[in-house]
Design a protein that fits this description.
With about 170 residues, the chain is α+β, with helices and mostly antiparallel strands. The chain has a single domain, classed as Electron Transport, Fmn-binding Protein, Chain A (Pnp Oxidase, Chain A), CATH 2.30.110.10. The protein contains 4 helices and 12 strands. The chain has a 7-stranded antiparallel β-sheet. It has a 3-stranded antiparallel β-sheet with strand order 1-11-12, with no helix packed on it. It has a two-stranded antiparallel ribbon with strand order 7-8. Strand 2 and strand 3 form a beta hairpin. The longest helix is centred in the middle third of the chain and has 9 residues. The protein is globular, with a radius of gyration of 16 Å.
Length: about 170
């Protein structure tokens, strides 16, 4: 039986939720990662992904400026860094250096890959839609990468700011 509740109570019950990190260059050329809690596959052919970022956040401005971004699915070993990327502004902090995050160059765009992530998707901005105080950014995936070790566990938010790893094995 369903009972009426305020939105925040029901919204809390949707956990676990995925966590992704979007990375783009800002207007000063600095790489800026942001942890976000909403993304989804938008299309298969061509492959596309949608992420949601607060419209006025530094990261949204950086992404619009660069017109390309990486979507990284962090591993459980990066829980503390992921929290940092989602709670500190890139306008004030070189988040990658502060966390000592291992990276490697992207292959098709001017960005980076998170070396320890379970997967990275290089994207070119294809469109955006304002939805309240967030913007949905559609990225056309131009290159994909995955961690060499299939046992590396993907990070999920299991409760508000409580992150844990889950093993997700590749299909096939």
């Amino acid at each position: 039986m369903q009972i009426p509740v305020v939105h925040s109570d029901a919204n809390h019950r949707r956990h676990p939720t995925e966590v992704v990190i979007a990375i783009s260059r800002d207007t000063l050329g600095r790489l800026n990662p942001i942890a976000i809690g909403w993304s989804t596959v938008a299309n298969q052919h061509p492959p596309m992904v949608v992420i949601a970022i607060g419209t006025d956040q530094h990261s949204a401005h950086a992404l619009r400026h660069s017109r390309e971004f990486t979507v990284a699915y962090p591993s459980e070993s990066k829980a503390a860094g992921t929290i940092h990327f989602g709670t500190v502004s890139g306008a004030d902090d070189d988040k990658l250096s502060v966390r000592g995050t291992p990276t490697q160059p992207a292959t098709e765009i001017d960005s980076i890959l998170l070396t320890d992530a379970v997967a990275n998707f290089e994207c070119v901005l294809d469109g955006e839609i304002v939805a309240g105080d967030h913007t949905l950014l559609v990225g056309r995936i131009v290159a994909t990468h995955m961690h060499a070790d299939p046992e590396v566990r993907r990070l999920y938010e299991v409760d508000h700011f409580e992150l844990r790893g889950v093993t997700v094995k590749p299909s096939g």
